[in-house]
Design brief:
3-stranded antiparallel β-sheet; 21% strand; D-Maltodextrin-Binding Protein, domain 2; Arc Repressor Mutant, subunit A; alpha/beta; globular; 294 residues
């Protein structure tokens, strides 16, 4: 019978932290250990599993192919460890939290995160509202939300003060096919009502490029925008990671469309959050940070 090997959560946490921080120095600060101690932990982990996980240089680190595969397993194992610890050792937290999020982001990135949170903290009741950013801001300012994930311009925006950027969105032009933009002097746009970050991005880029455009379809629903694009009524701007498979990305180098600057998702919160809301905020930020670095 082969000898069983127990992987230490401390070693896994050190490895993941080094990867997320991009080096040993920042990881040592976060783990509150000496840099040499963290380096020794990585060496012990590599010795245990018998593979080299990362290549080290004086300035940075790079995962080996084995390290890239191991990182996903390490995250899963450590997350399961932390869930067990939370279930039995953390103080029981209860209450309700009102969270707002844009429809596209809520349906693509949040479901798994929120499901894990609910499993870990079953006595916390989540109230999720999915709306346009404009409506989310209004609801938040009127006291209808404890926190909200909102789309805003990078480095600017009405709610920039006190907000925390948690996600960066590369944007692309999307159409039913390339034929949508052929034979039309003005580019037909399918957009959300103003003000909308994607709408402003599209119009600003077209103006700078000296290209003519027209608003062909306006809808406050993401499903409505998708339907309009599928019908060939217009071209939309969407986050690259959220383009439906049946739609075509119009890359600027082949269509002549101008490049689009990224936008960001920021988290805003009320001045005084409940213990349950604080847990949810930290959980969302940590999970999205891991997702970005995965």
């Amino acid at each position: 019978m082969p000898q069983l090997l127990n992987l230490s959560p401390d070693l896994l946490r050190a490895f993941i932290t080094v990867v997320d921080c991009g080096g040993f120095s920042q990881a040592a600060e976060q783990l509150m250990r000496g840099q040499s101690a963290v380096s020794l932990q990585i060496k012990r982990l590599e010795d245990q599993i018998g593979v080299r996980l990362m290549e080290r240089t004086p300035r940075n680190i790079a995962l080996t192919p084995e390290g890239t595969l191991f990182l996903e397993d390490a995250r899963a194992l450590l997350r399961h460890n932390d869930d067990i610890v939370a279930r039995y050792l953390e103080p029981e937290v209860s209450g309700s939290v009102r969270l707002g999020a844009p429809e596209d982001f809520a349906t693509s990135h949040l479901p798994t995160v929120l499901a894990r949170f609910s499993s870990r903290y079953p006595k916390v009741a989540l109230e999720i509202t999915c709306e346009l950013t404009l409506d989310l801001v209004r609801r938040f300012k009127s006291g209808g939300l404890d926190m909200a994930l909102i789309k805003q311009e990078r480095g600017t925006g009405e709610m920039r003060r006190g907000s925390l950027r948690v996600w960066r969105e590369p944007l692309v032009w999307v159409a039913r096919s390339k034929e949508t933009i052929q034979g039309d002097q003005s580019l037909p746009l399918a957009v959300s009502p103003d003000p909308c970050v994607y709408r402003r991005r599209a119009i600003s880029a077209l103006k700078k490029a000296g290209k003519s455009w027209r608003i062909a379809y306006t809808c406050g629903s993401l499903a409505g925008i998708h339907a309009a694009v599928r019908a060939g009524l217009g071209v939309a701007v969407l986050p690259k990671e959220m383009v439906p498979r049946d739609l075509t990305v119009l890359y600027d180098n082949t269509t002549g469309l101008p490049a689009l600057e990224d936008t960001e998702i920021a988290l805003v919160e009320t001045a005084s959050l409940s213990p349950a809301a604080l847990l949810l905020r930290d959980y969302i930020v940590n999970e999205l940070e891991h997702a970005k670095s995965a």
